């Protein structure tokens, strides 16, 4: 059981990082459908960096940078050139799938050093909870800390309230003298960097391999997760661990010889996400109440 919990936390971290990045985007009114493509490009960037340098830190930084650059370009297009957010995001996702496949051809058979081990002294030796909670990669703890920080930031700080106000009414923020478009560009870039970090973590630490299309829909799940979480960081974390738990459960069931076709077991994580979203969408008023009012809408200072 402790191994299942540990694996759930590790698997959920990929979704949580990307989901928190997309939440930062949507809090200021920008929808980015390109998470899948950004994560794939970051995955190959991070994996290739580790192959050539042997450094996991540089690999994660390379993935973060790849996600940030792609998100920056996306931000320039939708924020300053007013291209359609949904079409631009889909184009970014399609580009990322093809570009990562092309760049990753030479790395399919490449290997990287063993994943560095980490454990918290004393706590890691506790029965049951020690192996489950205190022998995780540092990225797992950093993701939990990020969710806690964002909860505090958006609820208790002046800067966080400003970002929320831009998401609700960019016109009002602009009238008060705030550079709305530059703030949106910075937030979109930060959100993309987190998606890139998620992709690099997936390839280098979680899977320790590169395979074409290895993100396997996690970017889309992270996008759906922001609505499931009603744009609240703590709920993004909870939803990510739900998906991670269902992913690990299907592997556990396959290993234990459960007589269910593997294709049906592979559907479990996605089916659970769909069921949750359907249940939430039964109350559209609740979604509208929590959704940033300017989400997906372009803003121009002259409008």
UniProtKB/TrEMBL annotation:
Would the keyword Membrane turn up in this protein's UniProt record?
yes
Q: Which UniProt keywords apply?
A: Cell membrane, Membrane, Transmembrane, Transmembrane helix
Q: One cellular component GO annotation, for this chain's record? A: plasma membrane
TM segment ranges: 28-51, 58-80, 86-108, 138-155, 182-207, 219-243, 263-281
The answer to whether keyword tRNA-binding applies is no
Q: Where in the cell is it found?
A: Cell membrane
Q: Which CDD domains match?
A: TM_PBP1_transp_TpRbsC_like
Q: Which domain of life is it from?
A: Bacteria
Which GO-annotated molecular functions does the record name?
transmembrane transporter activity
Q: How does it sit in the membrane?
A: Multi-pass membrane protein
Question: Can you name this protein?
Answer: ABC transporter permease
Q: Which organism is it from?
A: Lampropedia aestuarii
Q: What is the lineage of its organism?
A: Bacteria, Pseudomonadati, Pseudomonadota, Betaproteobacteria, Burkholderiales
């Amino acid at each position: 059981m402790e191994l299942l919990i540990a694996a759930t936390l590790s698997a959920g971290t990929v979704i949580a990082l990307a989901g928190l990045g997309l939440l930062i985007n949507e809090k200021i009114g920008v929808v980015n459908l390109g998470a899948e493509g950004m994560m794939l490009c970051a995955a190959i960037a991070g994996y290739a960096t580790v192959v050539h340098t042997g450094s996991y830190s540089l690999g994660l930084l390379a993935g973060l940078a790849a996600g940030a650059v792609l998100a920056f370009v996306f931000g320039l297009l939708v924020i300053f050139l007013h291209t359609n957010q949904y079409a631009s995001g889909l184009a970014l996702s399609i580009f990322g799938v093809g570009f990562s496949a092309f760049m990753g051809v030479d790395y399919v058979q490449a290997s990287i050093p063993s994943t560095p081990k980490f454990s918290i002294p004393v706590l890691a030796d506790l029965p049951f909870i020690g192996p489950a909670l205190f022998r995780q990669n540092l990225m797992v703890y950093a993701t939990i800390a990020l969710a806690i920080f964002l909860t505090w930031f958006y609820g208790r700080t002046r800067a966080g309230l400003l970002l929320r106000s831009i998401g609700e009414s960019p016109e009002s923020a602009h009238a008060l003298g705030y550079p709305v478009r530059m703030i949106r560009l910075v937030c979109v870039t930060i959100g993309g960097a987190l998606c890139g970090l998620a992709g690099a973590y997936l390839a280098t630490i979680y899977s320790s391999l590169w395979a074409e299309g290895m993100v396997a829909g996690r970017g889309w799940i992270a996008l759906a997760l922001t609505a499931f979480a009603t744009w609240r960081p703590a709920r993004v974390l909870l939803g990510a661990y739900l998906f991670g738990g269902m992913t690990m459960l299907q592997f556990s069931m396959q290993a234990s010889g459960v007589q269910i076709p593997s294709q049906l077991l592979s559907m479990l994580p996605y089916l659970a996400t769909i069921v949750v979203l359907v249940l939430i969408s039964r109350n559209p008023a609740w979604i509208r109440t929590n959704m940033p009012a300017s989400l997906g809408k372009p803003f121009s200072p002259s409008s």
